[in-house]
Amino acid sequence: MYDPWVLYARGLITAPNLVLAGIVGSGKSSLAKSLYTRSLPFGRRVYVPGDPKGEHTAVAEAVGGRAIILGRGLSTRLNPLDEGYRPSSMSDETWSSTVASRRRDLLGALAETVLTRPLSPLEHTAIDTALSATVRGNDVPILPMIVDHILSPESTSDPDGRLAEDGRMVGHALRRLVAGDLAGLFDGPSTVTFDPTLPMISLDLSRVAENSTLISVLMTCSSAWMESALLDPNGGQRWCIYDEAWRLMSHPALLKRMDAHWRLARHYGIANMLIFHKLTDLENVGDQGSAMRSLANGLLANAETRIIYRQESDQLGTTARALGLTSTEQKLLPGLGVGQGLWRIKDRSFVCQHQLHPAELDLFDTTTRMTS
Ligand SMILES: Nc1ncnc2c1ncn2[C@@H]1O[C@H](COP(=O)(O)OP(=O)(O)OP(=O)(O)O)[C@@H](O)[C@H]1O
Ligand SMILES: [Mg+2]
């Protein structure tokens, strides 16, 4: 039996977060699905803030939850700039500055990811100015308005045209989210509301075009929408599942956003589960010794439950070093079968076989598409 909230309540771990790594097809997603569905009878809820393979949709529907499917030609939109959950105790002033900084962070992270470089101070100013101008004129800003304001700022804030010049690259980077094949997903007011009474909500991105950077950007938009709704301290104990987390973690700006969210999670009763292929997915972020690298290591350190499924033999050394594995533990990893893993809970370790109920096997199956 494993329950991160119980371990946390007993003081055995200091954060309920979990990292799960293993090669393709080793049974990671199946384990995630069992952990979260089996926790539903205990009153936990489940959120999948971006599911690029759409494999949690059937589970969400089977447990009486909802999958929100996003894709070209579908009418569903999510606005990542939504205000989200507002704590009743918060003053208007604090609330608007909280929302503004959340939006600023998101826009900056999206632009940096598309541009694959950090933004300059001038570019941050361009985003800031556009955001304030948009918020002044509208209750709920949407991405196209921000892009318009970045590309053509109001003349009062840009008398000599230099702000427009400074924001050009950022404007065009963000434009990719509102034009072309990504139009219609995150560029209008939300068409769905977040229903906190459902046992499970999953955002299905499987119908969205496959392009690694853009998928990451879209996962960021969808998680931003969901995360803002999750910041309710009375929302109960909730799982937040980042399947295919390596997509997000491979971009420094997105990793930074994630790290901030991850740190907050505990106060909201949220247990994050991050799913990777290998731990070096985290280590490949940024250069050795860079700030990003230490963020990635911090993330790992912050997850006191690390489940290691089968690893390729060239990964054994790095995995063992990152987790401080003994040589016995290390030797075990290449021989693990599907659904078998080394569970490290703080300094204790266990080898576990994940036993699927036939009904689970049926519902969780990801191989039928390949074999039927
Ligand atoms: N514990 C288990 N017992 C028996 N079969 C399992 C178990 N876990 C997974 N499987 C089988 O292996 C298949 C692949 O599992 P799963 O999709 O969970 O792998 P994964 O590690 O998430 O793969 P990927 O890296 O491609 O996302 C499942 O469809 C299921 O049929
Ligand atoms: Mg999987």
Question: Which short descriptors sum up this protein?
Answer:
372 residues; alpha/beta; Rossmann fold; 2 domains; 9-stranded mixed sheet; 16 helices; 9 strands; 14% strand; globular; binds adenosine-5'-triphosphate; binds magnesium ion
Describe the protein's topology.
Elements: H1 4-9, E1 18-21, H2 28-39, E2 45-51, H3 57-62, E3 66-71, H4 92-115, H5 121-137, H6 143-151, H7 162-175, E4 200-207, H8 212-230, E5 238-242, H9 246-249, H10 252-265, E6 270-276, H11 280-283, H12 291-302, E7 305-308, H13 316-323, H14 327-332, E8 340-345, E9 348-353, H15 358-364, H16 368-371
Parallel strand pairs: 1-6, 1-7, 2-4, 2-5, 3-4, 5-6
Antiparallel strand pairs: 7-8, 8-9
The structure holds adenosine-5'-triphosphate and magnesium ion.
Residues 28-29, 243 line the site of magnesium ion.
